Amino acid sequence: MGSRLAELEARKNQARQAGGEVAVARHRAKGLMTARERVEYLLDEGSFQELDMLRRHQGAGTGLGDARPYTDGVITGLGTIDGRRVALYSQDFTVYGGALGEAHGQKIHKVMDLALSLGIPMIGLNDGAGARIQEGVAGLNGYGGIFRRNVLSSGVIPQISVILGPCAGGAVYSPAITDFIVMVKDTSHMFITGPDVVRAVTGQDVTLEELGGALTHASKSGVASFVFADETAALDEVRYLLSFLPSNNLEEAPFVASSDDPERDCLDLRDVLPELANLPYDVKKVITAVVDDGEFLEVQGAYAGQIVCGFGRLDGHSVGIVANQPQVLAGVLDIDSSEKAARFVRTCDAFNIPLVTFVDVPGFLPGLDQEYDGIIRHGAKLLYAFCEATVPRVSVIMRKAYGGAYVVMNSKSIGADLAYAWPSAELAVMGAAGAVEIVHRRELAAAENREETRMRLVREYQEQFSSPFAAAERGYIDDVIDPAETRRVLVRSLALLRSKREDLPKRKHGNIPL
Predict the structure, then answer these.
(1) ∠ CA(311), CA(280), CA(338), 5° rounding?
(2) Rounded CA gap, 409 and 113, in Å?
(3) Annotated catalytic, 214?
């Protein structure tokens, strides 16, 4: 047995150093951790149970010669994060550049199947050069198996993709299907075709960073959920993100006790709105004032800034927050913001996370570009997402709530369980000034003092039609509240709604306006 144990240890040592010293040194010279170091950093100490450590490609017909390193360029297994079980894979760039071949793909398939059957989150640490050319269609088949498992797991277990190197060609579609994508500045790159191909086909001269870097995907494409300065910060964020999510769609998110008084008044919120209704303010001040300990994890913070989405806690329970941001384009809804919010709403609904909306929306963004690019269809995605959501839903109207955008932003008419308004709220088809110009245009034209008449009519319109008290009289909102009471009201409301159960009509699936 002694010789057998020695052979076992020798083979496992080879697996632990599969890339060889030269490749590892070159990798570390770039300031990067190895695939194994990333796993050890992410997971609780000593919790990793590796699978398929001694797996390697079968060699015949692969064009890879005699080189058959153990692990085949990916580390897979199970472990814990803050004591909760997770499954993960970590691609090893020091072995075949992390490229995916038959054995590599089958290892990932196995751990994804385990994650789904166990009902635990699946984390992918991506650092690979795409399909392994030498293995031909076997690599493409491996990716197809990953994509299918991503889709089967969607909405069942949380899936998080961390991009820690190149991710090109077909490889990008697995992260795109997952729930969250985490990228690292100057290190992560995602693109369908690289700069050389773009230059050859289109004549456009673009750098790697401009084409598919982390900042590009954070601010322009919206592909990245989070971007961080280095690998350790990115992996730390994965741990933090998981603290807001349940392990699967049949569980609740973890409860995190807080010393923040659930009955605390938010006195600053009485003064957060400017005196003039057309002036901006930062809605994040409202959010951080209300949530436990001011902790708010924003998702896609650099993309479509006119809407803010993210996770917080109220009395220890996870909530998803969607809020219009008056600081950016006055908080209007457009194509990008509608898609961003719709994706977030559906993610929260899939994982039993209640939704809170803070509404201050003047409408949808007008313009030829928006209409030609399909604002009707894209705006309907957010409408569909809220209408489909069965989790507890609470809305707080702070200021403007105009037209179809008001309806789309989780109004009571599309299924919000409870809707509240501050005294400053304005619920109407459009702003009072614009409405008066249309409804009373003849009276204004005939008036001796047009401005005085206009101001009088605006006041009358506000009192009769757009006042929150008028909406409360009709039951369109459940109460008008002091802004200082917002935290207390939300905590109590969500506690009352915690037992909510709602079943959608039986169907294969709805047809969201993609």
Answers:
(1) 50
(2) 37
(3) no
Phi-psi region of 86 (alpha: psi -120 to 50; beta: other; left: phi over 0): beta
Output the six-digit token pair for 217: 């995907």
Contacts of 175 (CB under 8 A, 6+ apart): 124, 126, 161, 163, 167, 181, 190, 223
Name the residue with tokens 């990916």. Answer: 74
- Per residue in 404-429, pLDDT (tens digit) is 999 999 999 999 999 999 999 999 87
- The model carries a pTM of 0.93
Q: Give the torsion sign (CA, 137, 138, 142, 144).
A: positive
Q: Does the annotation count 404 as an active-site position?
A: yes
DSSP letter, residue 351: T
Domain boundaries, the chain: 2-242, 267-425+477-497, 430-469
Query: Measuring CA to CA, which residue among 369, 368, 281, 373 is closest to residue 331?
Result: 281
**Active-site annotation holder among 404, 415, 433, 447:** 404
| Rounded-to-integer distance, Cα 219 and Cα 246, Å | 28
Residue 169 known to be catalytic: yes
Instruction: Please list, residue by residue across 53-64, b when 16 or more beta carbons sit within 10 angstroms of its beta carbon and e when fewer do.
Output: bebbbeeeebee
Q: What is the CATH number of domain 267-425+477-497?
A: 3.90.226.10
Instruction: Assess contact for 116 and 80: CB atoms under 8 A.
Output: no
Cα 27 to chain centroid distance, Å, stands at 30
Q: Does residue 115 have an active-site annotation?
A: no
Nearest-angstrom CA–CA distance, 102 and 57: 7
- Which CATH architecture fits 2-242? Alpha-Beta Complex (3.90)
Q: How far is CA 66 from the centre of its chain?
A: 44
Options 119, 170, 316, 415, the catalytic residue: 170
Nearest to 112 by CA among 161, 170, 169, 39: 161
Alpha-helical (H) ranges within 154-182 are 173-177
Distance in angstroms (rounded) separating the CA atoms of residues 361 and 397: 9
Whether 2-242 and 267-425+477-497 share one fold: the answer is yes
**Strand 317-324 with 307-314, pairing:** antiparallel
Q: Where does residue 499 rank: exposed (0-12), middle (13-18), buried (19+ CB within 10 A)?
A: exposed
Q: Classify 348 in phi/psi space as left (phi over 0), alpha (psi -120 to 50) or beta.
A: alpha
Tell me the per-residue pLDDT of 24-60, one tens digit each, with 9 for 90 and over. 888 888 889 999 999 999 999 999 999 999 888 876 5
97 is written with which tokens? 């550049």
Query: Of these residues, 136, 169, 194, 301, which one is catalytic?
Result: 169
